[in-house]
Amino acid sequence: MSGSKLELNEEQQVALDQFRNEVKDCQLKDSSDEYLLKWLKAQVFDVGRAEKMLRQSLEWRRESGADEILQTYVQKEVFTNYFSVGLVGIDKFDGPVFVCVIGRVDIKGLLLSVTHKEFSNFTTWMCETFALAINQEIERTGKRTTQLTLMLDFEHFSMRQMASKQVVEALLEMIRTYLINYPNSFRRIFVVNAPKVFHLLFALVKPILSPADIPKIKIFGNDKNEWASALLEEIDAEYVPSYYGGTLTDPDGNPKCPSKLNMGGEVPASYYLSNNGPVAKDYMETMTIIAGAGGRKKMKYKVDVASSILKWEFMTEGGDIRFRVYTKNAKGSEEDLVLPCRVDSHLAMEEGQMACDEPGKYVFEFDNTFSYLRTKKVRYRIFVEPPSSEKV
Q: Which of 26, 51, 114, 159 has the CB geometry, 3.0–4.6 Å to 118, for a possible disulfide?
């Protein structure tokens, strides 16, 4: 469908014509100018890079089964019940509006409940669901430039999640899959209730973003009046759940609209895959932590250089364990950096890291005091990596 009325300068039109010629051998479901421009804009009209990006995406679609996944995919119950994403309406620009309460999603619990392939299949299905909603609006309105609006609610997203290597890698996999294979497909992303640790996650995401995408992202803290008014500037109130400042409710009046999306929540252990537990690595040290009142072990690490990285990986035998990370100042008072949390490290290796913003003493604590009878054996590696080293 070339020849559409597009606001392109001469150089951009030449790039579009060249790009079309370079990919003419590709079997594209959509060969419109608007579709091809998505790839060019993502690569700032660099034809060679756009061609490489498109061809790699076509190979990904073949390997992932993206073209058929909406017809063949059967969603696992744990995703249906505990992953929060739903279509709530359209914005004022005729684009679909999705809401994801990502801060309440127990990513670690989901990862314990599915295989990596199942997680990847769900990611592909979700991306194709977004694309289908866009295409349905294109058919309804006749506008070829339709993009979606996504609201991400980060309430309750904590340092515990940010410090988990598995959680961060899973989030980045989902984001990367969408950005690389569906370029220029969002018009606006609203991030609301962003916690203090959000800047750490955004720093990891930013390199994946196209320069044209960054201004489309609006980030708000927990001032509901501020972000609710921003939502309503671009989305009619009837399409914003009442819980988020609009007028949309379920038929029974529920302001959270559970018929359109759930609110996430902790995944019950009954969903976890049965397995033989993680395997200790040769370089790991071992400690035994007794049950009851004396069941605490503390390891102190001196950080001399700001922005060093405290890294850890550990597993347990005998059941779960609680851990925390905190600092102690000169007066001896403690400040939690990773709040005390129980982890199923007997089922999966627990891996994580955090930036040490200031020099000082950092304490990593294992806690088995909640257990009355079961002694735990912990196999671990904890170390400080200087800021000059490559960061994951």
A: 114
Find out whether 90 and 148 touch, Cβ atoms under 8 Å: no
Asked whether the beta carbons of 185 and 135 are under 8 A apart, the reply is: no
Q: How far apart are CA 63 and CA 270, in angstroms?
A: 31
Place of tokens 């339709």: 146
Tell me if 125 sits within 8 A of 70, measured CB to CB. yes
At 73, list the tokens. Answer: 């995919």
Mean pLDDT per 10-residue run, the chain (392 residues)? 65 96 93 93 95 95 93 95 97 97 94 88 97 95 89 92 87 94 96 93 91 94 97 98 97 96 92 80 96 94 92 93 90 86 86 90 95 92 81 40
Q: Which residues contact 368 (CB under 8 A, 6 or more apart)?
A: 289, 290, 291, 292, 295, 296, 321, 322, 374, 375, 376
Closest residue by Cα to residue 99 from 246, 273, 298: 246
**Three-state secondary structure of the chain:** CCCCCCCCCHHHHHHHHHHHHHCCCCCCCCCCHHHHHHHHHHCCCCHHHHHHHHHHHHHHHHHHCCCCHHHHCCCCHHHHHHCCCEEEEECCCCCEEEEECHHHECHHHHHHHCCHHHHHHHHHHHHHHHHHHHHHHHHHHCCCCCCEEEEEECCCCCHHHHCEHHHHHHHHHHHHHHHHHCCCCEEEEEEECCCCCHHHHHHHHHHHCCCCCHHHEEECCCCHHHHHHHHHHHCCHHHCEHHHCCCECCCCCCCCCCCCCCCCECCCHHHCCCCCCCCCCCCCEEEEECCCCCCEEEEEEEECCCCEEEEEEEEEECCCEEEEEEEECCCCCEEEEEEEEEECCCCCCEEEEEEECCCEEEEEEEECCCCCCCCEEEEEEEEEECCCCCCC
The answer to pTM > 0.85 is no
